[in-house]
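seq as requested:
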Amino acid sequence: MRYRIEYADGRCCNFANSRKDLLDWLKLLKDEKIVDIRKIYKSGVTDSVIDSYRSYLKQ
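struct tokens:
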């Protein structure tokens, strides 16, 4: 499963290839303002999952 991390400025984003990669990114990006985390399905459809990972953002 792929994830897209979107930032507040809206001009860039990062991709994580697995949940483990996503959690590693969230640890590295403590000072960044993240506005959304989207799960990317194989069909190309995206779904917001930021509520599931909000506890990792506050650490």
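The mean pLDDT is 90.
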